Amino acid sequence: MFSDVDPQKILIIRTHRLGDILQVTPMIRGLREQYPAAVLSILVAEGFQGAIEANPDLDAVITFPRSSWIDRLQATEKIDWGVYREIRDFVRKLRCERFDRIINRQFTDFEALLTHLLAPTVFRGKVIDDQGHVRYADPVTQRVIAETMARGRNPALKNLVDLSCEVADVSPSERRLVFPVRGEVVAACRQRLLGRGGSPERPLYGIQPGASRSFKKLESDSLASVVDYLIQAKRGMVLFLGTAGERALGEEILQRIRSDRASVVNLMGETTLEELGGFLTLCDLLITGDTGTVHVAAAVGTPTLSASYGMTYPYETAPYGPEHLILYSDLPCAPCDDPDLCRKDMACRRVLQPEVMILGIDLAHALAAGEEGEVRRIRQDPLLKAVRLLYTGREKITPPLTLYDLQVEIPPLPASNDSVVIAQDAPPPAGPSKCEKVLDAVQRIRQCIAATVEEFDRGNKAEGFQAILPVFDLINGIVGEAGVAEFPSGLPGLLNRIGQVMERMDLALLQELLVQEMLPLMDEMEKGLPRQTNSA
Amino acid sequence: MNRCFSRNFSLLKERFPLVESRILDPADPALPVPVPAESGHWTLRRPTPKGEEVFLHSPRDPRAEGERIARSIPDDPGMLVFLGGAFFYHVTAVLPRLGEGVPLIVVEEDPVVFTAALSVAPISPLLEREETLMFVGESPDSIVSSLMTRYSPEVLAGMTILRHLPSLETAPDEYRAVEVQLKGLRDLADCRLNDPGLGRWFDEGVDGLAAAFDEVREEHARDVGKSGEVQEIFHLMQLLRQEK
Q1: CA A517, CA A357: separation in Å to the nearest integer?
Q2: Chain B environment of A117 (Cβ under 8 Å)
Q3: Which of A58, A111, A269, B32 is deepest in the core (most CB within 10 A)?
Q4: Within an 8 Å CB–CB cutoff, is residue B244 touching chain A?
Q5: Chain B stretch 183-202, residues whose beta carbon is closer than 8 A to a beta carbon of chain A
């Protein structure tokens, strides 16, 4: 819980990137359920309101011309006083709203400072204070930052949907992305397809080749072969999806295909966001990279096949829902920090050659059809040696989302209802007491600290960072068990500092904080626990 | 023309040739006539926009009043600006308390008052200080421009503004406009000191500042923490400008 007092007005900040906005919708659902009387608003950049304006859990969508401000400010070395006045009026307007809770799920500095300037009673996420210092307001965000800095190839990272719910401290009754598409819009999309040569008899594949960032774009050569395969081998129809700015990319692919071009409908730049959802509803499979569209597909329940490489780390960003297959380019350098600095000419993208994408399509079909033998055959294909096959499963997600590594394990087929036996009258098994759990966590924190210091002493920097990460979860667990009132008052501040020190990779200071400050706090915590008594 | 006026006038011409044009003809019968206070020092009655009349200095003892005002200034001001000079009792009283090199700025919005002052108030102690500046009937932009040309941000950021309340009652809007701009200038100077990245905005000069100051209102300037609103908005702009 944030505090004992229910909030009156909550602002969620997640200003841009379609997928990221959709990934906070389960959190918004949780907030609505937990605070039914509160006014819930979201702040998004102009152009993204379509992703969220039909969301039934929100009371207001506040927009601002983020891109236009950036363009105007970057266009000249002089001050743009028009932008000055617009930003000033925008901040004043938001201040008048007097939000008492702000959940900032944006990690950009502008929104972090804005969160501070709006001076809410309680806030979560990244904040920049008066002095320009970056602060992470809650233990979950602190942990995320620490994990991101030391993430390496950590498959235990949580999906952003689950993290958002943790940050807001909510647990929605149903954890799924929310993107309502009206029935009449779907019907109109169907009509448009029929008018452009579509046939209900043929499987429909959506392809989104472009992306907001250039390194995320799929290679047109690869996609042309994939389109040929879908048309010739699968007898399918293909929809090109994307923005008007990406339309040329669609035309380029179209020029390269060898099969019947009439089987391709280029819808790039021809759809509103809701219509995009409508067309995706009609698709049997969406094929794309790490794009916002993959999350729209997840929201409307369409299976996806996505290529993941570069900075993208699917454990964090996989589409939330069943039947999503991710081809993860599993090179030693992945996930990278900045593809612009790549010295390997984006080898991670080249791994996902057309043959690999085609195997992915077959795998998606085999998984959907429950053809276990075919799944086993495909996963052993030598072409997939450098690719990790990650799958969200076949059934509704039970949070948190965990990805199946298909080369290790194939998810079970959905169980029929009568196979589940629930012991109605069985008493719940006796678990450890609250005191025991806290004590156990304290011991494990000590072990983590010892392991971290040992790794650092050996010069193993990455391993040391890895070893300290469980501490954040353990402390969250303690908060849950012991309650904030019994929590040593210095611990939240210390965690914040540890997060910052990890961000700066300052090993010496990190060790000092752990040994000289964290360990004494653990001692204090242990002493504060009631003594265990042996009863007869 | 009395001797006091003649001496003051020639001193002024020497130090501030431009101020000369602001001085009216002392023989003009329309000029108000100073009146003696009980202590024998001079004071002046002036009308306010509300239709009332105020004494610019105490009708009992203007000099003692000036010394009282002078005692209220903070220790070691980096720069002192008086809004309202009137007959300068409060300004001259402050001189012994000012350190060497501390700029002393006097803004008198009413040339009538300034002309009358020259007839009764010896201003040589003020003008002997090289760091004294006088603005008579100048526009806020002109004052700010002149200060920006002469002083570094370090000096401007340490500006203390003292308001001579009777003078402010006679021309509230004019003094208010000057005060707002001066505070904006101080904010921006502070901004530049605390964030070198903002320096070039400061350096853009009075055209940019005029637009900014127009937007700054005292009631919004100190909303959050220690930062003024201008500084906050500039900081937001800076973050957006840096975004990839």
Answers
A1: 51
A2: 224, 232, 236
A3: A111
A4: no
A5: 195, 200-201
Best of A43, A68, A71, A79 to substitute, by most chain B Cβ atoms within 10 angstroms, is: A79
pLDDT digits (tens, 9 = 90+) for A77-93: 767 778 888 998 899 89
Which residues are bridge partners to A41 per DSSP? A11, A60
Structural domain count of chain B: 1
Q: Is the ipTM of this complex over 0.90?
A: no
Three-class HEC string of A273-296: HHHHHHHHHHCCEEEECCCHHHHH
Nearest-CA distance B177 → chain A (Å):
19
Architecture of the domain spanning A9-168: 3-Layer(aba) Sandwich (3.40)
Task: Give A8-29 pLDDT, tens digit per residue.
Answer: 999 999 999 999 999 999 999 9
Decide: B131 and B104 in contact? Cβ < 8 Å: yes
Distance from CA of B96 to the nearest CA of A (A): 37
- Residues of chain A contacting residue B223, judged by C-beta atoms under 8 Å apart: 95
Structural domain span for residue B161: 3-242
Q: A184-414 — its CATH code?
A: 3.40.50.2000
Residue A12 three-state SS: strand
Of the candidates B211, B223, B225, the beta carbon closest to that of A81 is on B211
**Nearest-CB residue to A119 (from B204, B224, B243):** B224
**DSSP labels for A354-407?**
HHHHHHHHHHHHHHHHT-HHHHHHHHT-GGGTTEEEEE--SS---SSP--EETT
A265 near A197, Cβ under 8 Å? Answer: yes
Q: What is the dihedral of CA B97, B101, B103, B106, to 10 degrees?
A: 60
